[in-house]
Amino acid sequence: MTSISDFDVPFEGHTLKADHYLGRDSNRILYLHGAGGSTRRGHHLVRAALRQRGLGSVCFDAIGHGETGGTLAQSSVASRTRQAQAVLAASPLSGPLVVVGASMGAYNAIRLTEQHKVDALVLIVPGVYTPSAYGVPFGPEFSAVIRRERSWVDSDAWDILSRFEGRLLVIHAEHDAVIPLEISDRLFGAATRAASRQLHIVQGAEHNRLWSLLQETPADFDVAIDMVVNTIK
To answer: For position 220, what pLDDT does the model report?
Structure first.
């Protein structure tokens, strides 16, 4: 078997393009990418590092992204959660489940803990959203909702995480111009029932330049990856 295998997942008239980085020791990680121009290929650096440590993962291009194609207007944050569930159901992942989410994908990861037993949750530069934005198709209406000043304050993410009993790691970029530190702080603080929880702030990093910055100092990169591994194992 090759170290990376592609597979397709039918979803509401679309075909989600997914892949599996085969892990030597375990294959439990569902990895969710972010919004904008994000794709599963953009997270190769982290997933390859995890695979080198024996940990396999599955990731897919959400509708409107990468090889899946389609338009963002055909999707929403709620749809992305359903897409993740469809990929999970079709994937070769074994339990207990681990979910890694980046940016918007972090909120989808949090929502998945409501329907699935999640053993560990890794939230990277995590975005959260007001419930009123959840089902709104991506486009001008969605943007208008989330661009309201501090629209995320009434997010249900805090309440959902307050019931989470697995292991939690939140990774924040020091100079994130998209996600304020208050969000990461509140996510960490909400998880009072978590088996373990950790907030790691990557010094000098930006929202879209965290792992690539860490890679410039291999020792720092290894420390961050080891945090992820220790949370997952």
So the answer is: 95
CA 32 to chain centre: 4
Report whether 184 contacts 199 (CB < 8 A).
yes
How many other C-beta atoms are found inside a 10 Å radius of the C-beta of residue 51? 20
**Complete DSSP assignment for 36-84:** TT--GGGGHHHHHHHHHTTEEEEEEEPTTSGGG-S-GGG--HHHHHHHH
pLDDT digits (tens, 9 = 90+) for 90-139: 999 998 999 999 999 999 999 999 999 999 999 999 999 999 999 999 99
Grade residue 233 by pLDDT with cuts at 50, 70 and 90: confident
**Which pLDDT belongs to residue 1?**
47
219 dihedral zone (left: phi>0; alpha: psi -120 to 50; beta): alpha
- Residue range(s) defining the domain that contains residue 9: 4-232
Residue type (1 letter), 79: S
**What pLDDT digit, counting tens, does each position of 151-167 carry?**
999 999 999 999 999 99
Q: Reduce the DSSP state of residue 135 to 3 states and report it.
A: coil
CATH code for the domain of 193: 3.40.50.1820
Q: What are the φ and ψ backbone dihedral angles of 55, each rounded to 5 degrees?
A: -105, 115
Q: Which residues contact 24 (CB under 8 A, 6 or more apart)?
A: 51, 54, 56
Q: How many domains does the chain contain in total?
A: 1
> Closest Cα to residue 216, out of 202, 230, 226?
202
Q: Which ranges in the chain belong to alpha helices (H)? A: 44-52, 77-90, 104-112, 140-146, 157-162, 181-190, 211-215, 218-232
